[in-house]
Design a protein that fits this description.
Layout lengths: L7 H25 L11 E6 L3 E5 L4 E2 L3 E7 L5 E2 L2 E5 L6 E4 L2 E2 L4 E7 L7 E11 L7 E9 L2
Parallel strand pairs: 3-11
Antiparallel strand pairs: 1-2, 2-4, 4-9, 5-10, 6-7, 6-10, 8-9, 10-11
């Protein structure tokens, strides 16, 4: 006795279509949920001490409430210690900035600037240096931010 299921090919077709639809939906969500990082590359160079200590950050004014990459170039044997970020134009407290070593003499950190009642802000980043030589004990840079 042979049992026939005439609707079975139809169910297989629907199952394949739903899998394709699910994959397309996931792909579109991953593209639309991707953070906007196009403008946040560390491309602006700030000389902090005689071309020996150089800070790279995105073009100013920096955006608020977004992650901002920083890159620090130091001579061999010099390490940045826990740094501090504070508001210059308005007191915003002090935020720590922790550096992670990349390639030789290169350090990376992520910065997050808080929003303020002022549309434009000036910030100061102070970087203490563990060094034995002719470098200062700390260097600092000021930069600006602007609310979107």
């Amino acid at each position: 006795m042979k049992i026939s299921y005439p609707f079975l090919p139809y169910l297989t077709f629907i199952h394949k279509k739903s899998r394709v639809f699910s994959l397309l939906l996931l792909a579109s969500l991953s593209i639309s949920c991707r953070p906007d990082t196009a403008q946040h590359f560390a491309t602006e160079k700030i000389d902090l001490h005689q071309e020996k200590v150089v800070l790279w950050l995105p073009p100013q004014p920096l955006p608020v409430e977004k992650q901002i990459p920083l890159r620090l170039q130091l001579p061999a044997g010099v390490t940045p210690e826990l740094s501090e970020l504070g508001g210059e134009s308005m007191y915003m407290g002090v935020s720590p900035v922790q550096w992670q070593q990349g390639d030789e003499g290169e350090w990376h950190a992520q910065l997050y600037l808080g929003a303020c009642t002022e549309h434009q802000m000036t910030w100061r980043l102070t970087i203490p240096l563990a060094t034995q030589g002719d470098l200062p004990a700390s260097v600092s840079a000021t930069f600006s931010s602007e609310a979107n």
